[in-house]
């Protein structure tokens, strides 16, 4: 009640917008942004957290198994955004959205959520998106190859297949450093017990190393007959893409190649400017000073973050390609090569 009164006092002493009134009644009502509220926090491991989020007004209720959602959380006074795979099946009865977050060494938001996420927290959301999802209808034979937290989008697929009472054949090869780091272990065991068509092999890489291409072909001799989905470390995905032409992959991290970009001052007219190095993307530069550019995948795939360059040169971290004034570029994978100005 005290927080409500303080919020009301602030609103009475500042110019009001429609959202300011609705926020007092229901913090999930907003016409300016998509919001959600953390309803439950489940801790499956010391370094992981499952968030059950109630979507607010306007958040798209439907998605496809395997897609991700953007989440923005206030950390040290500024909103930090990242995309996380949805782990629940689509069309859930309670309408909740589930994401499972594993703390990453350089992951500011993932570490914050694992350490501090609490029920009742209001978060900002971006609509579900992504091309990594089950076909419709699902293929009669499927191979999943996952490692570590790469199991999260596939967990949504497995839960979706379970909810559909899928009768096809699924082979799942999953790698973890050791059994203590296995996410969803009990549920995977349940699926193995209840579904004759689900065949799970868990590899402890700290003991037996990664699955090689040769081993995969031996374990799954009918590879050519299967739809193949893979998610995990970039090195694993690179090898799979080079050897399995049919594989659909999902990457969680941006490969920051050597572009020799020197960085510079990034100007957002009327919004501010910030100086960054040659490894900081223009999307990340905006986030440092509270300028929230639209984005989706943060991997240069979906094009949601596309902006126009008003002045200067931007360079693509993945390919080294340069973009000059007047050209459009993807802010999530481009860095400043000198001072730049973004056309907003």
Written account of the structure:
This protein has 344 residues and is α/β, with parallel strands linked by helices. The chain has four domains: 32 residues, no CATH class; 97 residues, Elongation Factor Tu (Ef-tu), domain 3 (Beta Barrel); 110 residues, 3-Layer(aba) Sandwich (Rossmann fold); 80 residues, Beta-grasp domain (Ubiquitin-like (UB roll), Roll). 23% of the residues lie in helices and 33% in strands. The chain contains nine helices and 19 strands. The protein has a six-stranded antiparallel β-sheet with strand order 4-3-6-1-2-5. It has a five-stranded parallel β-sheet with strand order 9-8-7-10-11, sandwiched between helices. Helix 5 links the parallel strand 8 and strand 9. The protein is globular, with a radius of gyration of 22 Å. The protein starts with a helix and ends with a strand.
Features:
single chain; 344 residues; alpha/beta; Elongation Factor Tu (Ef-tu), domain 3; Rossmann fold; 4 domains; six-stranded antiparallel beta sheet; five-stranded parallel beta sheet; 9 helices; 23% helix; 33% strand; globular
Number of domains: 4
User: How many whole angstroms does the radius of gyration measure?
Assistant: 22 Å
Model regions low in confidence, pLDDT < 50 over at least 5 residues:
none
**Percent of residues in helices:** 10-25%
Number of helices: 9
Query: Quick one: biggest sheet?
Result: 6 strands, antiparallel
Strand content: 25-35%
**CATH level 1 name of the largest domain:** Alpha Beta
Shape: globular
**What strand line-up does the widest sheet have?**
4-3-6-1-2-5
Q: Give the structural class.
A: alpha/beta
Average of pLDDT? 88
Q: CATH superfamily membership of the largest domain, which one? A: Nucleotide-binding domain of ferredoxin-NADP reductase (FNR) module
Say how many strands there are: 19
Query: What letter string, H or E per element, gives the SSE order?
Result: HHEEEEEHEEHEHEHHEHEEEHEEEEEE
CATH architecture of the largest domain: 3-Layer(aba) Sandwich
CATH topology of the largest domain: Rossmann fold
Distance between the termini: 40 Å
